[in-house]
Amino acid sequence: MAVLNPNKYMELLPGEVKTALTKVIHVLEESFMGFWIPDKLRDATYHYIRNRGKLIRPTLVLLMAYALGNGNGLEKAILPAASVELIHTASLLQDDIMDQQRIRRGMETPYSIYGSHTAMLASDLIIAKAVEFAIRSGDNDIVFELLNSSVKLAIGQSLESELSCKYDTTIDDYLRLIYYKTASLIESSMIVGAYSVNVKDTEIVSRIRDVGRFVGTAFQVRDDIIDYLNMDSKNPGTNYNEINIVRIMSRYDGNVNDAISKARGLLNEMLDKAIGTLRETMSNEVLVKYISLLRI
């Protein structure tokens, strides 16, 4: 098992998607130009925009639009992709506050540097801008999809706090949590990618929603395994207050190796379901190749 270099994700992207992703990054970096914002608040707001991760969620928006639009219509996906990334960024700021997280992506968090009040206000600014970008997409279906996803993320944050106080968290509890906290936004990323190229057939949208849920579940299970084994040098390993599938599966018999094997099995089962559903929905394999990188 290994933590993938972000370059591996980029290597699989068609040239048109890479170009569109560059435009998304530019939109993000220009998000708050023209506003006077106090220095500390501006720095906290831009922290994760400038120190970005793999940009998986906006990339999924663009890849879905590319696959369903036969390479056309990517311009219409740029604002929705930026909105998705801003929603994710706001959730990181809130997660840092709630978990008192001091290190993320190998550096101090805005919570650690500027305090919880500034980090909270930065998340408010980012959410407001995410809503603006969704509205500017000109498609109410995109707006409502992303608003609903934001509601689910808040529910997920609350549920995580409740479950962290329980000793007897079940796998069902865990799956409900990761749907709200992680998979729901990945699901919405794929949906708004489809909406961006005017794909709104009920059956196709339902399949895409399934794909997003499967991929989102696999994504979080993968992160849990990596965190539990402390495989990512840029991020601290899981602590005993965090909800982690390996800890849940090994709670009663203490067999960590068996729990990791079962978690990997679930991860790969979710990816198999996602790939199967994608192939029923579209002939383009670009998304299949991209999400296959999640296998460990």
From TrEMBL:
<dbReference type="GO" id="GO:0004659">
    <property type="term" value="F:prenyltransferase activity"/>
</dbReference>
<comment type="similarity">
    <text>Belongs to the FPP/GGPP synthase family.</text>
</comment>
<dbReference type="GO" id="GO:0008299">
    <property type="term" value="P:isoprenoid biosynthetic process"/>
</dbReference>
<keyword id="KW-0808">Transferase</keyword>
<dbReference type="GO" id="GO:0046872">
    <property type="term" value="F:metal ion binding"/>
</dbReference>
<dbReference type="InterPro" id="IPR000092">
    <property type="entry name" value="Polyprenyl_synt"/>
</dbReference>
<protein>
    <submittedName>
        <fullName>Polyprenyl synthetase</fullName>
    </submittedName>
</protein>
<dbReference type="InterPro" id="IPR008949">
    <property type="entry name" value="Isoprenoid_synthase_dom_sf"/>
</dbReference>
<dbReference type="Pfam" id="PF00348">
    <property type="entry name" value="polyprenyl_synt"/>
</dbReference>
<keyword id="KW-0460">Magnesium</keyword>
<keyword id="KW-0479">Metal-binding</keyword>
<dbReference type="InterPro" id="IPR033749">
    <property type="entry name" value="Polyprenyl_synt_CS"/>
</dbReference>
